[in-house]
Amino acid sequence: MTKFFEQFIEKSNGAYPELKFNSATYQRKTNELEIRFIISAFDAEMFGDGKIADVKAIVEGIFPGVNITITYIRTYADNSNVLHKIYEYFNKYEPMFFKFLSEKNIAIAIEDKEIDVKISFDTPTYMLLKNSNSDYKIKEYLDEHFNGEIAVKLIENVVDISNVNIKDIKPPQATKSSTACRLIETIGCDKVYARGKVSGVSQMPSYICDIKQPVENVVLCGKISGIQHKEYKNKKYNPNDPSSKEPETKPMFRCMLNDTTANIECVCFPRQSDVEILKSLNDDDQVICLGNVSVSTYNGQLSYALDGIFRCSINFDSIQRVQNKTCPESYTVVFPEPYAKVSQESLFEEKVIVPEFLQNKTFVIFDFEATDKYINTAEPIELAAVKMVDGVLTEVFQSFAKPSEPISDFITELTSITNEMVAESPKFEEILPDFFKFTRGCTLVGHNISGYDFPLLEKYARQEGYKFDNDLVDTLLLAREHLTEFKRFDLVSLSKNLNISHKNAHRAIADVYATSELLKIIASRL
């Protein structure tokens, strides 16, 4: 326990046992101190604004005159997550023993806020790990990621060989990857971009779908897509200070990373000298990345801040395939209907020419309305989609969905969807198989599909055993790249500037029709 945390407990009279100190960072130039506490996901729901304000006041009392920021890292301790962290520890720090791990020699008991871990090894391995204090090191590693009291014990697995012929004894064999050990084999590691002391990658990448909470120094791999090269305003820039060498803007790189188990949004802030190097990356390049995963303040989903990018070849056969449900033979809850044109305006009736980008392709343009902007807490309340074949709309898929909690007044005001409207609607889990059938063999399209709609869809798909392996097209990213004459790229602004009919904005079907017209316009410029 650090001296700071001891003081915090004393000053708070032990009022916040749900908090565990994680780490702190002090910026001398700006006199800013960030304190990071770990809190369980359950306790976080009960940790209201009053407690947050009180904690900050206590910390400010300990560090008077310092600009304090408090960050709460939510954790969720179940057997799967704890087991994954144990494998992660051995992969990082004890790689020579990693391949001999299996779920059979790891026992985890979780009760209330106590996590008890016992790991058994044969005598030689036990002695090596015990002499290097590995039990203490594993406990420290788990302490960084979970709240509560953690106990780790190494156990010697003594085998009685008194009646065994010495010739029959075989050396231990590496176990096949278990579902918790989820690591991916890669070949090659050619540096594209690295910052700080990062020079290479010394461990195998984890599955993206296994990253369920913030974690530092995690290695992931996959194909990249949706590459963006942008500029952001430099907060340190001072136009009134001629001696300052800080530029007005700095470069930023964004992309999506997909290892076939899940997607994760990636971002890095390269030096100006690295910009051209990053521009050598293309969609579908296979890479290994090293960095930190945190929760985005924008949409609540996990975001991967990259410290290093390395080209590689991924052995996709090494990825354990989850048993996914097959496509239903028929629709059961939501039945697609033929598209009935309600407008006389048609880009293709005027020009008759279908842009090459849309030719010989089938798209499903879809949109959610949901109870929250944060993916982890959002529940769909409306799903709408249209199917576009060779640039022509052919079918419509639309349904309300009943959430588990009442719709808030804010969401009702935004979307005009009331609790009464969804009262008799099916749950989204009931709609999902029909939507899965509707999208087979199609490219999925949406405005900010990468940042919201697809992650929300994927969250429910994983729970229900469906895998949406469709290609994705994000009209928000395409608009930023090809509609450079505009400054705002939200769907309402683009519709206004491009004379796209967009009545009842923030209703799923209205947004879908507007997105389909936007796709046609962008396609004509490609």
Outline:
With 526 residues, the protein is α/β, with parallel strands linked by helices.
List keywords for this structure.
16 helices, OB fold (Dihydrolipoamide Acetyltransferase, E2P), alpha/beta, 4 domains, 18 strands, six-stranded mixed beta sheet, 526 residues, five-stranded mixed barrel, Alpha-Beta Plaits, GMP Synthetase, Chain A, domain 3
Shape: globular
Instruction: Summarize the biggest pleated sheet.
Output: 6 strands, mixed
Trace the largest sheet across and list its strands.
Answer: 13-16-15-14-17-18
Structural class: alpha/beta
Mean pLDDT: 84
The share of residues in helices is 25-40%
Q: What is the CATH fold-level name of the largest domain? A: Nucleotidyltransferase, domain 5
Report the count of strand segments: 18
Low-confidence stretches: 169-180, 342-349
CATH architecture of the largest domain: 2-Layer Sandwich
Between the first and last Cα atoms, what is the distance in angstroms? 59 Å
User: Quick one: CATH superfamily of the largest domain?
Assistant: Ribonuclease H-like superfamily/Ribonuclease H
Number of domains: 4
Strand fraction:
25-35%
**CATH domain class name of the largest domain:** Alpha Beta
Tally of separate helices = 16
Rg from C-alpha positions?
Answer: 26 Å
Textual characterization of the structure:
This protein has 526 residues and is of the alpha/beta class. The chain folds into four domains: 3-75, 2-Layer Sandwich (GMP Synthetase, Chain A, domain 3); 79-168, Alpha-Beta Plaits (2-Layer Sandwich), CATH 3.30.70; 186-318, OB fold (Dihydrolipoamide Acetyltransferase, E2P); 337-525, 2-Layer Sandwich (Nucleotidyltransferase, domain 5). It is built from 16 helices and 18 strands. The strands form four sheets. It has a six-stranded mixed beta sheet, with helices on both faces. It has a five-stranded mixed β-barrel with strand order 8-9-10-12-11. Helix 14 (475-482) runs parallel beside helix 16 (508-525). The longest helix has 18 residues, at 508-525. The radius of gyration is 26 Å and the shape is globular. Mean pLDDT is 84; it is low at 169-180 and 342-349.
